[in-house]
Queue: 3 jobs
Job 1
Amino acid sequence: MTGLRRLRRIATALAGSLSHFLLPSQCLLCSAGSRGALCAQCRDALPLASGNLARCPRCGLKLESAGAWTPATSAPLCGQCQSDPPAFDHTLIVTDYAPPIDALIQDLKFRARLPLARALGSLLADSAAGHAQRSGERPDFLLPVPLSRERLEGRGFNQAVELARPVADVLNRPMLLTACVRTRHTGAQAELPLSERRVNMRGAFAVCDRKLIENQHLLVIDDVMTTGHTLRELAACLKRHGAARVSNLVLARTPLH
Ligand SMILES: [Zn+2]
Ligand SMILES: [Zn+2]
């Protein structure tokens, strides 16, 4: 990336951030006045916004008989987690990767609309706070999924880090930004057939500082989960290096494997 392109990208991001402070607070989706990122009506309309009740607690996959569980009885594991358990222990999904959230995530990532990160991050923060209250469990550290150096230079920011900031505030936990890196530029998972994504991720992460994660509960944060191979690979790497527990907090999951 040339210096000029990078400067232009930073200028765009700064302009976006500035307008966020100058404009009155509005719902991202319907523009109604709202103190939060979404007004109450739009928030209630998100698919499964109320939590993980009809999702596999381990991987967040939507279970077929949605609505069969109440807060008093936790949902069972999905078939895949039973036959091929991932290294992570728990996954909390805010909503489906579907309209209207999908367009907002794309605006954030591909058009560098950084003010969206704080708004979307506040949805993650609300989910995290609700889960902490229900379960009585709080992670030791947040770990936004690292980007490769190439991707970071191209995009100018890591959307997972930006989304994690409001979560760090609400849980009062620090982010680990140097404990783990993405060692390989694997290309966009979304461009590969589903069958090749798992192989594509193998060995993609490395832990740089084992002491930071040993015996810790890490909350991994990402924007989108599709097959789950990225999060599987990252959790396996963290567990190999001594992490005690790995949970995922993801803004949106595609409805199908
Ligand atoms: Zn609204
Ligand atoms: Zn599952």
Job 2
Amino acid sequence: MDKLLLPVLLGTNRKKRNSVHAARWLIGEMEKREEIETKLFDAADFAFPKDDYGQEIKGLFPEWRDTIIKADGLVIVAPEYNHGYPGTLKAVIDLLLQEYIHKAVAFVGVSAGPWGGTRVIESMVPMVRELGLAVTFSDLNFPKVQNTFDAEGKLLNPLYEKLAREFLDELVWMSRTLKWGRENVPSKFHPLPQVLSE
Ligand SMILES: Cc1cc2nc3c(=O)[nH]c(=O)nc-3n(C[C@H](O)[C@H](O)[C@H](O)COP(=O)(O)O)c2cc1C
């Protein structure tokens, strides 16, 4: 079967961020699976202009744009900031629109508190729906993340290997199903390849 392209977006540029450990560890788990091709995008690497925003500036970030065009799904690593999402994460997501339609998205919630980013994930679901993304229902939650990885990013709780497997199984299923749909079921949002070549 074709590989699925499932990039991971790390949603904060905070210097002492702990969610980087969750993102890097998950990338490692994804790279173990033959059916997945992945790549880490880091909100800290997006140098946004001070005087413009949104799709008008997507040309400034061609690697992000071109990867999402080719992607079958997306993993968003979302740290919980005051029960919501970081502005940097929203700014990256708002760069694109059409490019996301009818692709899967799965959330990794990260928090210092006991709820594992549940609230940031819930706050993002209506937003990604507006982008045409289809949300999986298996989140990966890292509560008390400061106790889950050591300072070097080593995972301290092996339970996460099973949780990540189930999380990825669901994302793969959704991504493959939607890929089949994009390629075989007509929609005004993504012309079928044969229509494009006419
Ligand atoms: C501005 C800000 C707001 C935060 N609000 C919450 C919160 O509402 N709930 C919570 O459990 N942790 C909160 N935290 C802690 C983060 O969830 C924690 O730092 C976690 O490691 C994920 O963020 P990080 O990747 O920036 O470290 C907050 C952190 C910051 C910087």
Job 3
Amino acid sequence: MPTNHRLLLATRPTGIPGPENFAADAKPARPPAAGEALLETVYLSVDPAMRSWMSESAAYRQRISPGEVMLGGGIARVLESRAEDFVPGDLVQARLGWQTHPTIPGRYLQKLDLTLGTVEDWIGPLGLSAVTAYFGLRDIGGLRPNDRVLVSAAAGGVGQIAVQIARIEGCRVVGIAGGAEKCAFVASELGADAAIDYKAEKNLSSAIARACPDGIDLYFDNVGGSTLDAALEHLRLNARVVLCGRISQTHAAEPYGVRNLGRLSAARGRMQGFLVFNYHERYDEARNWLAARLRDGSLRQRLHVLDGLEQAPVALGMLFRGENTGKLVIRLTSETGSG
Ligand SMILES: NC(=O)c1ccc[n+]([C@@H]2O[C@H](COP(=O)([O-])OP(=O)(O)OC[C@H]3O[C@@H](n4cnc5c(N)ncnc54)[C@H](OP(=O)(O)O)[C@@H]3O)[C@@H](O)[C@H]2O)c1
């Protein structure tokens, strides 16, 4: 049996999580029982929501307790199978946890359809971040051609796909991101019409006014707080605000009190939150759409790859310090065999 290297939650973080909140252990992997498969993790996705799973008061999904394997989704290769429909070599996605060799019931595994894209596509532009952008913009935001769209955290996993979907659908798109390098990526690689470096702007609302001179029909909000407030000031008639995430508030000492809700009334606009998990039965629809745009070259995605399970605790903190460009993932092995 291979050794299963695991990262357990050691202590609940009070601020940005880091290596001090995790403990490593190593044990022989558990042989699969009937209906289970032994896996080798290939990629783990790193997502802001993981921070909330580590809290005593987890807002949604599962709460994790100290001593348990850290939760997280990813892609793995089947090493040994006693589960119907899975054979060694199959590539699957599942909630693997932060471990190299999980043993998981077959009913929790989804085989990757490699006709849609590569393993890297499945952790990237066919993964949950991309699917989140798809449903957020289309179902919640009611995206229409010619909409003037603003996206925050535009250089991140969800944001980079949101920018491109809006561009592909014939919208004028402006991205907000932290730093000149990220803004160059948003404008030149993702094809946004303009990018705002919020870290370089004294007054974000004025910067939005300059970049969006005709206002905003759809604001895709990954950030919350004062960024949301600034965007609200520029809503056009019948604008839609999609509350995808509020990463700026994760470690805020005091929750930010949004001041410009009156603008939503004036615009006869609407603001709505959502969780991608509620679209589970329609993931294929999103993936087929995204895969077609990958094939025709109109959609691309930057993966920010860190190698080795031991990088995972550092990686999680990077999201909250803005140190990632693109979708942040941990690579544990190569696609074709143990690395
Ligand atoms: N609703 C859903 O179902 C769902 C699903 C997935 C993700 N989400 C949400 O979508 C958002 C993006 O997630 P992701 O996985 O794609 O992460 P990401 O955008 O790849 O990484 C997070 C980014 O947020 C920005 N950021 C961090 N702290 C910030 C702060 N205090 N103020 C402003 N910006 C800050 C940083 O970019 P800059 O350097 O540009 O600041 C950072 O790179 C998150 O809010 C997440 O919770 C929601």
